[in-house]
Amino acid sequence: MANFVSGSVSELKKIWGWLTSPAAEKALQEAASFALTAAPIVEQIATLTGASPTFEKVIAAYDKFGVPAVQLAATSNPTQLGNYLLNLATTVLQKNLTPSQGPVAVNLLNTAVQLAVTAYKNGQTTVPAK
After folding, report:
1. pTM, 2 dp
2. Which of 12, 26, 56, 80 could lock 75 by a disulfide, CB 3.0 to 4.6 Å apart?
3. CA of 32: how far to CAs of 26, 84, 101, 114, 118, in Å?
4. CB-based contacts of 8: which residues, under 8 Å, 6+ apart?
5. C-beta neighbour count of 88 within 10 angstroms
6. Would the CA dihedral through 118, 123, 126, 129 be positive or negative?
7. Domain that holds residue 82
8. End-to-end CA distance of the chain
9. Domain count of the chain?
10. Are 48 and 57 in contact (CB under 8 A)?
């Protein structure tokens, strides 16, 4: 038991060290900067799909943004619908990036969308100034 606890504490220290590292700080700052661009996309999708998205509303949102939805399987599972909406918002965000922003890792764009969704759900419905 003592070895397990000691090993667990050691692993937690490694994780904490990474979370507080300059690389993690840089990644979070980059994701936060893209969240400002993602915010209006998230607002538009939320307006289109409402508080309780249905598969039909999700498909309509994909159509509105011109994103192919052929790979989506019909579902009423809220988690799967949320994943579809995350993918939609990330795809639209990726399309809206300027060439000077270069290619951005999808995980950073997903994080930016998640930050924008969190802000939206907490009542931040306007995009703050950069």
Report:
1. 0.79
2. 80
3. 10, 22, 14, 10, 12
4. none
5. 23
6. negative
7. 25-121
8. 50
9. 1
10. yes
pLDDT digits (tens, 9 = 90+) for 77-121: 999 999 999 999 999 999 999 888 878 999 999 999 999 999 998
Q: Is residue 130 part of a domain?
A: no
Residue 128: inside a domain, yes or no?
no
pLDDT in tens, 26-83: 888 888 889 999 999 999 999 999 989 999 999 999 999 999 988 889 889 999 999 9
Which residue type sits at 77? Answer: N
Residue carrying the six token digits 């508080």: 51
Q: How far apart are CA 22 and CA 18, in angstroms?
A: 8
CB 28 within 8 A of CB 108: no
Q: Return the ∠ at Cα 72 (arms to 122 and 62), rounded to 5°.
A: 55
The residue among 113, 123, 130, 121 whose CA lies nearest residue 41 is 113
